[in-house]
Specification:
Oligomer: single chain
Helix content: 10-25%
Shape: globular
Order of helices and strands: HEHHEHHEEHEEEEEEEEEE
Number of strands: 14
CATH topology: Jelly Rolls
Length: 266
């Protein structure tokens, strides 16, 4: 068995596994969600398109927690290949917390720079994302950007983002000396990154390229707390429910969360 090189993970806070999923597997995922989008029918609390608005992201919003209703998404969340990489990066078993699917069609706004553990509030330690490219992801179509070395930062209290560029309201400025890296990913590549890493994306400025992605979040098995909105989704890689305590306290902004969009990110 080949030992995985985790140098970039420890140095930069992120790691790319090229071709972890086959093009056939990725095409199956894309087709499954495209069928969902073609129907245009709401799935309450998971996918609620608004056909009356001109904003392309109202027609193609994120799908939240698709593993809760889609067996294929659940299978991907606890895929053994992801488990192998996650265990190597974390040094222990991961616990699955969340899935999301992004359509990001041409003309879609991006998402301002942010840190994932501001939302998941995994304690102790932090969460980890596995960002699966469904289409080719590059700077022109709003590909993901990450700020190397920010995994050593504390989670910051966000500022307000530019609504013309970002569909979310939170913004964490890339700190000096940690300039964003504009990644290029092919379908089937998986980007893993630490929950403190500052990352985000620009709008999709192409006229005909979608930038679909399937995102999973995990926590280390030894972490004892997570924000309550994730409790019902926690499972191990055998598919068994997992329980954790609820994160409490003021958080980086000095107050408890009160916004309706907590947990709706990426």
């Amino acid at each position: 068995m080949t030992v995985m090189d985790t140098t970039s993970w420890h140095r930069d806070g992120f790691h790319v596994s090229r071709g972890l999923f086959s093009t056939t597997e990725i095409a199956t995922v894309r087709e499954r969600f495209d069928r969902l989008a073609e129907k245009g029918e709401s799935i309450p609390q998971h996918w609620e398109p608004d056909l009356s608005r001109t904003d392309v992201l109202a027609r193609y919003p994120r799908v939240m927690h698709p593993h809760a209703f889609d067996p294929g998404s659940r299978a991907m969340l606890i895929d053994p290949r992801l488990r192998t990489v996650l265990t190597a990066l974390l040094g222990e078993e991961p616990v699955a917390c969340q899935t999301m699917y992004y359509f990001k069609p041409p003309g879609a706004r991006g998402q301002a720079f942010h840190q994932d553990n501001y939302y998941l509030r995994v304690q102790p330690h932090t969460c980890i994302a596995a960002w699966v490219a469904i289409d080719r992801s590059h700077p022109g179509n709003g590909g993901l950007q990450v700020c190397p070395g920010t995994h050593t930062m504390e989670v910051a209290c966000p500022e307000t983002s530019d609504a013309e560029l970002s569909f979310t309201t939170d913004y964490v400025a890339p700190p000096a000396g940690h300039d964003p890296v504009r990644l290029e990913l092919d379908p089937g590549d998986v980007l893993f990154f630490n929950g403190s890493v500052v990352h985000g994306s620009n709008p999709n400025t192409t006229v005909d390229e979608w930038r679909r992605s399937f995102i999973c979040h995990y926590m280390p098995a030894r972490s004892t707390h997570i924000w309550q909105g994730y409790h019902q989704h926690l499972i191990d890689f055998e598919g068994r429910p997992v329980t954790r305590e609820t994160s409490t306290g003021g958080g980086p902004c000095g107050a408890e969360f009160g916004r309706e969009d907590v947990g709706n990110f990426h």
